[in-house]
Amino acid sequence: MLSRVIAFRDAMGLEAAPFHAAPLTHATSGPGWPGSPIGSPAAELRLQELAAECARVTAENKALLSRATGLEQEVEGVRKQAFDAGIQQGEQRAHRELVPIVEKMKQAISDTIGARSTLRASAEKDVVQLAVQIAKRILHRELATDPNALSALAKVVFDRMTRSEGYTLTLHPRFLEAVQASLTGNSGSRVRIEPDPGCAPGTFIVRSEEGTIDASVEAQLDEIARGLADRLAEG
Fold it and tell me: Across the strands, what pairs with 192?
C-alpha cells in the first residue's frame, strides 16, 4: 500500500519546491483587498499570507512523505523478519523431520556393513571347506591309483623321528611294499609296519614310546582346514 502512496506522490509531483509567487500587476480578487493595487499594503499583506500558507503546506507534504517512507521501511523490516522467521522455522521443522530418516539410513548402512562382514566370513569358510573337500578328492583319487603315494610321506616322517628306538606304523596293505622300499638304513630298521585292511587308504599312524602321531592324509587336511579357519576368525 505504501508503495502505491509513494507512486501516487511521484505522479502528483508532491515533492514540490517552496512556493515562489509569480509577479502580479494587480490583485483582482480576495477578501479585504478587491481591486487593490500591487503595491498597496493590503495586497502585500495578502501575498505574505499566501506565501506562508504555501510554505506550511509544502512542509506538511514533506513531513507526510517522510512519514510514509518511514512506514514503508518499517513494513519492509517486519516483512523481512517474518520471512526470515518463516525460513528458520521451516529449516527447524525440516531438520526435525529429517533426523529420524537419517538415523534410519545410518542403521540400515550399519546393518548392511554387518551383514556384508557376516556374509564374507561365511563365504570364506565355505571356500575353505570347499578347497579342503576338493583336495581330499584329488588325494583320494591319487591314493587309489598310485601305490607309491605314501612313500614320500613315510620318508619325511621317519627322517624327523630320531629319538625313539622303535616305531609301529599302521597303514593300508596296498601301500606296504612301497613304504617298505622307501624306508632305508636306520629308519627302516626301527620301523615295524602293521598293515590293516580295515583302515582308509590314506591312513598313516605312527606309534612309539613318546606317543602317537596321526600323519594320515585325512588328518593333515583337517588340520589345514582348522588353521585356515583360525586365520579367518582372527582377521
Answer: 168
Task: Give backbone dihedrals phi and psi of 231, rounded to 5 degrees, phi first.
Answer: -60, -45
Which is nearest to 161 in space by CA: 131, 186, 198? 186
CA angle (188, 192, 194) in 5-degree steps: 135
Residues whose CB falls within 8 Å of the CB of residue 36, separated by 6 or more in sequence, listed in order: 27, 42, 43
pTM value is 0.45
Q: In this structure, what DSSP letter does residue 37 have?
A: B
Tens digit of each residue's pLDDT (9 = 90 or more) over 125-173: 777 777 777 877 887 787 777 878 888 888 888 777 766 678 899 999 9
Task: Pick left, alpha or beta for residue 30 (phi over 0 → left; psi -120 to 50 → alpha; otherwise beta).
Answer: left
**CATH code reported for the domain at 146-234:** 3.30.2320.30
Q: Count Cβ atoms below 10 Å from residue 179 Cβ, excluding itself.
A: 25
Every domain of the chain and the residues it spans? 2-93, 146-234
For the chain, what is the radius of gyration of the CA atoms? 57
CB 66 within 8 A of CB 72: no
Distance CA 53, CA 59 (A): 10
